[in-house]
Amino acid sequence: MRSGNQVNNPPLFPRLTGILRVSRHPPTKLPMSSSQGFAPVARDDASVLILGSMPGVVSLQQYEYYAHPRNVFWKIIARLFEFPENLAYQDRLHELQKHGLSLWDVIQSCERRGSLDSNINAQSVIGNDFAAFFERHPHIGHLFFNGSRAEQEYLRRVLPELPERLQQLPRTRLPSTSPAMASLSFEQKLHSWKQVKLAVKPNFQCEDLTGFVSRVKSVAPI
Question: Which pTM does this prediction carry?
Answer without folding.
Answer: 0.77
